[in-house]
């Protein structure tokens, strides 16, 4: 059973390959993504993020997701020496990890129900468990930032998570917090991590580091990275090739 919806301004695809898959469970996931958008969208005046930035959200009104996201923003900033930052000009904007959080939580909702074979993809970020409809390991492609619709690498992440940050995906919204300037040398950075939430938050931070982002990942064997610069030259961590499969 597979469905795709446009939510959070991105395509979200849920595929469950267990024989007992129920449409109700997929609907519950889409409802959760809608809830995340309602809480964290900076484009909704009524979202928690917008109300927080307007000084209209009391702490006792914070949702469980909002509490955890704010905590993780602080933690990720500390873990990356400030290269992940959720405050821009005094405005709280946690979008650098919200998508990964939503996918991670959605996947665990399916695990809690008892599903073993499924994938959740949102805007190119990916979490899978078990096997696909053909009984084979799940795969996910890294998009070519210069040629829309083309794939540069196909990955087989197993039960790990995959996330990509890049100017071609979201516009030049990630900046170097030290220099205070929008990055231009790196156009795409894909991170493989123990789950999609960690992949997303570190992809955002390492993209902001520029070329040093791969060095950061190289020192952390639980993660792997693949970077493409504005000249189309790709570099990667030493453990990245283990996840690559052949493709036509």
UniProtKB/TrEMBL annotation:
A GO MF term: metal ion binding
Organism: Candidatus Wirthbacteria bacterium CG2_30_54_11
Record-linked Gene3D superfamilies: ApbE-like domains
Protein name, UniProt field: FAD:protein FMN transferase
Keywords tagged on the record: FAD, Flavoprotein, Magnesium, Metal-binding, Transferase
Stretches assigned to coiled coil: none
Co-factor requirement: Mg(2+)
EC code(s) of this entry: 2.7.1.180
Signal peptide (residue range): none
InterPro entries: ApbE (IPR024932), ApbE-like_sf (IPR003374)
PANTHER family noted in UniProt: FAD:PROTEIN FMN TRANSFERASE (PTHR30040:SF2), THIAMINE BIOSYNTHESIS LIPOPROTEIN APBE (PTHR30040)
